[in-house]
Amino acid sequence: EFMKNQKLVKFIKNRINPYINIYGNEEINNRDWEDEILKQFKTKSLNSLGLSNKMYSIFSTGKLIDYLHYTQKNSLEHINKINYYEPNKYMILDVNVRTNLEIHETIMGNKRRGSLIWVLDKTSTAMGGRLLKKWLEQPLIDIREIYRRQNIVEIFIKDIILMDQIKNCLKNIYDLERLISKISYGNCNARDLSSLKSSLEVLPELKKILIESNNELLVKIGNELDSLEDVYSIIDKAIVENPPISVKEGGLIKHGYNRELDELKDATISGKEWLARLEQEEKENTGIKNLKIGFNKKSGYFFEITKSNLDLVPDYFIRKQTLTNSERYYTDELKSIEMKILGAEDKMIELEYLIFQDIREKVKLETFRIQKVSRKISEIDVLNSFAQVAYNNNYVKPKLNNKGIIHIKDSRHPVVEMTLGDGIFVPNDVYLDNKNNRVQIITGPNMAGKSTYMRQIAIIVLLAQIGSFVPATEANIAIVDRIFTRIGASDNLSQGESTFMVEMNEVSNIIKNATKNSLIILDEVGRGTSTYDGLSIAWAIIEYIAEGIKCKTLFATHYHELTQLEGKIEGITNLNVLIEEKGDEIIFLRKIEKGSTGKSYGIEVAKLAGIHKNIIDRADQILYDIEENHIFKADEEKVDKTVTQMNILDYRKDYFIEKVNNLDISQLTPIEAINVLYELTEEAKKLKGNE
Predict the structure, then answer these.
(1) Residues 37-72: tens digit of each pLDDT
(2) CA triplet 538, 105, 88: central angle to 5 degrees?
(3) Crossing angle of the two packed helices 143-158 and 160-170, in degrees rounded to 10
């Protein structure tokens, strides 16, 4: 049924580009997926995994395990833990929010530099970097856990020596998660074990630093941190320093680890002494001073004699190979030594590989312990990274509340601030609550800083809920369950959707899913259509949010008529971005204050962009004529909403009717007609459901 909905499949593919496998009901129902899961995670009940009575989760988890077994053809012992994602434990951030807030990459150019993670990521380990990315995608709802993270960050900030000690330890730790995966799969080499050993060598020192910090939180982490000294010892006793990449050519195992191997190594060393002695004896016997013993894998050992000395070759030398400038020979004695040396070397290489495999299996048995240590190190790394960023950029520890109040003094945008440099960014105060300051309508010219102001509020809330300090001088942040954003104009040509259609789809999603505990950022909603249509839609949306959802909302707009809603609808207030006018010039002050502005200064911005003077003058004249003849005012008394308030989804019905009217039945094949009828039926059901 899912695959029949081609529009939904196309949407999912365009959004996240997944690889989709289709499985029939028979294949799903004929397997005991619960047993598959219990075997993988070595447990007797799904309760311990959080999957009990979750039918679809059991199907999908079991099938995924089956898929991994089929594709990897190897052990999956390193996959020994599963976490059931509970949406009510985390703030939800959809793909639009992650894009608009530029959490992982910039909108322009898809670059890491200029994104939020670019500012925050001072981690020292690969595991820490991955955990930071995860935390940014899953901000917490639980205030106690947020405070726990904050308190550890605060410890590091107050003791920068401790912060640096931790960082210096972490720098020497390789990617434990990837290393243990390679070990479990059986495709690691000796250098991987050497990297693991180097990482484990740091753990006792890290444990000591944490315990000696005399801080309850860090001492607890230190006591829980397994130093894995036994695993370190296994590798250290066996594997040589700087081992070769190949595991099947010898040179892996230390002398003294295995007696049999040592004897074979001694035999090869003695063999080299035998060869040196034989070479010297034959030089003396033959009188050939440049005679030498050589070796290659194809020919083995041989005497090499230049052609100028061939008349000195004795009868007991047996010709082996003729070259352009020399001849190669062997003797019975040389052949005997060769057999001893090569036999010992082959046995030595074979034994070394067997010993290496045994060491690898011993380490593999400690997979769970190593993974647990990896998780501890990852968390320490991320919190230490937060501390470094907060210390270097003067961030403050935010207070948290469940009262719906967001009060921030001197809030700053972390990315813009870093890009501009010290002291250039203009900070702004923020106050939102669930009563008189729920919805803030922000007016001001383009480029004045409206979008930056709204984004920085959303980012500060996000930072607070991942346990980070925030760019401000003081902050009290309400816990929000979701952040929604509608910022910027874009279209979706691949799905046949215009800029306005995309905008309305996103707004529809926000209205359907926002709660009173959500934070909504709307930037110039309604500008994708005609002025009066756009104004009407924007007006209706603000009314619905303020009176229906009642969540904290920032709404930037150039529809100055919307500022009339302040005082008419409870919870709506006006803000505007200050500018300074000097003659025909404007200066952006980037400061937000209460009140509204009646001008957009669009023509002044066009002038700053270098638009020709004749065009600017003509625009001024046209603007004057329009403003004289088209004035939009709100009635003093609110008109019956059932008559005048616009249904946001009416455009879908108009689109549906137009699509039916434009159908040319005579040009459709029977199959095409059936498909069209199916699509129309589905769209009609959706329209009915939205009424």
Answers:
(1) 888 888 877 877 878 777 778 888 888 888 887 787
(2) 65
(3) 100
Count of Cβ atoms closer than 10 Å to residue 468 Cβ: 30
Domain ranges in the chain are: 6-84, 121-228+366-392, 259-360, 395-648, 649-691
The yes-or-no verdict on residue 496 having pLDDT over 50 is no
- The CATH classification number of 259-360 equals 1.10.1420.10
- The single residue listed with the structure tokens 């912060």 is 163
Q: How many CB atoms lie within 10 A of CB 3?
A: 9
CA distance 614 to 103: 42
Distance of alpha carbon 172 from alpha carbon 167, whole angstroms:
9
Nearest to 388 by CA among 476, 468, 477: 468
The Cα 264–Cα 259 span in angstroms is 9
Residue 492 to residues 267, 348, 545: CA-CA distances in angstroms? 73, 64, 26
pLDDT of residue 616: 73
**How far is it, in rounded angstroms, from Cα 34 to Cα 242?**
45
Angle at alpha carbon of residue 341, lines to 337 and 344, rounded to 5°? 140
The H or E element that residue 283 is part of is helix 259-286
- Cα Rg of the chain, angstroms: 36
- List CB contacts of 389: < 8 A, sequence separation 6 or more: 119, 120, 122, 395, 468, 469
In the predicted structure, residue 400 carries a pLDDT above the cut 60: yes
H helices of 101-257, in order, are 116-120, 126-137, 143-158, 160-170, 176-185, 190-211, 216-224, 229-238
pLDDT at 604: 66
Residue with tokens 């036999």: 343
What are 378-390's pLDDT values in tens digits? 999 999 999 999 9
What are the strands, taking DSSP E only, across 53-140?
A: 92-93
Looking at domain 121-228+366-392, which CATH architecture does it have?
Orthogonal Bundle (1.10)
Please state the φ and ψ torsions of residue 362, each to the nearest 5 degrees.
Answer: -65, -40
Q: List the 318-322 sheet strands across, edge first.
A: 292-296, 300-306, 326-330, 318-322
Q: What region, left, alpha or beta, does residue 244 occupy, with left being phi > 0 and alpha being psi -120 to 50 degrees?
A: beta
At residue 452, what is the residue type? T
- Please tell me the class of the 395-648 domain: alpha beta
Q: Where are the beta strands (DSSP E) in 487-643?
A: 519-523, 552-556, 572-582, 585-594
pLDDT for position 646? 41
Which tokens is 104 given?
């992982």
Q: How far apart are CA 259 and CA 316, in angstroms?
A: 39
The DSSP call for residue 615 is H
Backbone torsion region of residue 89, taken as left when φ is above 0, otherwise alpha when ψ lies between -120 and 50, otherwise beta: alpha
CA distance 17 to 494: 13
CA–CA distances in Å: residue 570 to residues 536, 546, 547: 19, 7, 8
Task: Write out the H or E segment, with its range, that includes residue 474.
Answer: strand 474-478
**pLDDT on residue 488:** 66
CA torsion, ordered 93, 94, 98, 100, to nearest 10 deg: -110
Residues 495-515, mean pLDDT to the nearest whole number: 77
At 493, the pLDDT band (50, 70, 90 cuts) reads very low
Q: In 4-145, which ranges are E strands?
A: 92-93
Q: pLDDT at position 121, please? A: 96
pLDDT value at position 630? 58
Domains 121-228+366-392 and 395-648 share a fold: no
404/517 Cα distance (integer angstroms): 7
Distances (CA, A) of 569 to 500, 536, 559, 565: 27, 16, 17, 6
